[in-house]
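Example record for the data management plan.
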Amino acid sequence: MKEYRIEDPLDLHKVFRVYRSHGGFGWLFRGQADAGWALLPKAGRVEFNNGRDLGRFNAWRELAVAYTSLPDNDWECLAIAQHYGLVTRLLDWSLNPLVATFFAIAERNEVDGAVYCYSSDVFIDRKMLPLDQLDQVACFLPRAINERLNRQAGVFTAHPEPATPLTESELAPPRSGQNLVRVVIPSRAKSEVRDMLTDYGVHLNGIFPDLDGLSRHINWQTARSLARKRDRAAGATDHQEEGPCGAR
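Corresponding structural encoding:
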């Protein structure tokens, strides 16, 4: 797999000028907080992989009508289930590379994160294709069915064999190269990249437009501000101990 390694936050702009979404018909973007994680939907993970993800979804659908209105279309309903945390065969992506970058750096600061750029040649016709007749990994471009999906510019890949990780293949002509690229963000750069994204309005309150997102964002701002004050205080103390000539 082709890989870029970010040395400076501005390197992200250089990469994303090459890989663009073009409304979903170019590149899609997914951020993972640990660059070592495979590209697997939750239904393919060991703790959930029982081969019955569609049955689980149907059971969820029968019960979920008590809580909210659901779309009639199977694919859109599956996207709603994914949105609310059900384990499905869908894998979340975004048309916005900065949103994907946020998910790559918002957690696990002790390990490198990664943004994956993926280009699909296969797209799901939500009106024609039954859920159980998908025979290859395909891209699902949903309608604007909820606000969070809109804010995150959310799209999905659907995986008929959820336990099989997504891997690279050759782009279909007339394009050339591989359809999957990894952009590694070193652990040491995560904090600086998050500050840059915050300046651009890509933060918890921006991509989770609800009270939960607002509260989490304010909590992060508070913790970040206090950490900086502690760092400045520690630096001042070290300087005083060194003395005017740098000797202790």
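Summary line stored alongside the record: Strands lie at 2-5, 28-32, 90-94, 113-118, 138-140, 154-158, 180-185.
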